[in-house]
Amino acid sequence: MRVHHSPFRLILSVLMFSWFSLTSSQQLSGVKGKSENMLRLRNFSYVDQQGTGIEAFSFLMPSDWKFEGGITWLLDNPMMPSVTAFRIFNPKGKEEFEVFPNHCFFWTTNLQLLGMFPPGSRYFGSVVKKTMSAQVVLRNIILPEQRGGFQDLKILKDENVPELPQILGAGKLGQGPVTSEATGAKLRISYSKAGIPLEEEIYAVVETINIPVQSYFGTTYNILWYVDYIFSFKGEASKLEDHTLDFQIITSSIKINPKWYAKYSNVIEYLAQQQIARINNIGEFSRLLSQMSDEMREDKMQQFKASGDVYDRVSQKFSDNTLGIDRYIDPHEGKEVELPAGYNHAWCNNNGEYIITGNPNFNPNEGSNLHWEPMQKK
Q1: Mean pLDDT across the chain
Q2: What are the pLDDT digits (tens) for 162-218?
């Protein structure tokens, strides 16, 4: 039974689906028409300094964009021992991609247990709260929590998006007494910040796991439910879709480090085996993490690879066929890099930066103190 969650799971696959497949073909053709321009990108690597001390994930982004946030380890929640929250944004504009922290809740039909742990309390690290659909969660939890400070906030669209959990395989468990379900939703909102009108689309998935518990008085259910895949795309009003290519570059290039994920999975196993032993000192926690193996058990590795394979198939098919992706070889690291198609010429330097251009005469070495090398298509 899979009941534990990565801080942001394989959000990349849902990001690819949710935003770009819902963008009109006319808008996408406009994005593809930028081949005469030059685009400069850089590779960003996030190191989990609070916990494991190793790279957790990496991605490409426009060179002049910035990253804020990261992974926070929770010492009292064995089902979700860390959460990820970050934003990738254009400091010269209003374009922004944001990932919000997941939420982990608990509910039960056992009235005696509910009397001991009433709504609002914590049951083994999870907040006790009655289950909600993704649409209700977005309106009643995520929106007030993340955007409640804007007085001119308006909801432009409020929709169920059942395709989100379907494409992710969320809410699906194997055969057995434990059942699960999932719902997906999105909100399109508008508000002003510093006098500039903005629009934002926020997405979320709610996964519910129902665990039957047999007792002398009959069967009751303990319910674990998660709000995850919570993310948004933001931009100036009426210009949000103009930055589809920027968002596509970021989301299609996110890679989770399997060694980091191994440590994360092993922490969950440890907490379960120790019956949710509490760790009260961050130094002790870091020492524990450093001792955790960065190798996965075979079953966990197979699960990680299977999830990655699903993403690779979805991402590659969508990127290649819809927006267009060219694959190049980075001569500095000898690895494959996926870059937007239609530019025909690509360069890289040893700082992890890339330039793609449609101009065959462009040479980034001219007037630069960096060493750029041309990249060959795979």
Answers
A1: 80
A2: 888 877 666 666 557 889 999 999 999 999 998 999 999 999 999 999 999 988 878
List for the chain the helix, strand, coil content (%; round to 5).
Answer: 30, 35, 35
Q: How does pLDDT run across 220-249, given as a tens digit for each residue?
A: 999 999 998 899 999 999 888 888 888 888
Q: ∠ CA(50), CA(56), CA(62), 5° rounding?
A: 110
CA dihedral for 26, 32, 36, 37, sign (positive or negative): positive
Q: Do residues 311 and 338 share a domain?
A: no
Total length of the chain: 378
Domain identity same for 265 and 364: no
Question: SS3 for 306?
Answer: helix
Strand partners, 50: none
**Residues 337, 240 within the same domain:** no
Q: Are 259 and 338 contained in the same domain? A: no
Kind of pairing between the strands at 353-357 and 345-348: antiparallel
Per the structure, the count of domains in the chain is: 2
User: How many angstroms separate the CA atoms of 99 and 203, rounded?
Assistant: 10
Model pTM score: 0.78
Q: 273, 297, 321 — which closes off a domain?
A: 321
Nearest to 34 by CA among 363, 359, 372: 359
| Cα radius of gyration (the chain) | 22
Chain-centroid distance, C-alpha 356: 26
Which structural domain range is residue 340 located in?
A: 324-377
Task: Fill in the DSSP letter of residue 154.
Answer: E
Q: What are phi and psi of 320, to 5 degrees?
A: -65, -40
Q: State the Cα angle at 113 between 111 and 119, rounded to 5°.
A: 80
Same domain, 266 and 293: yes
Q: In whole angstroms, give the CA distance from residue 270 to residue 355.
A: 44
Which segment of 107-116, 183-192, 327-336 scores lowest on mean pLDDT?
327-336
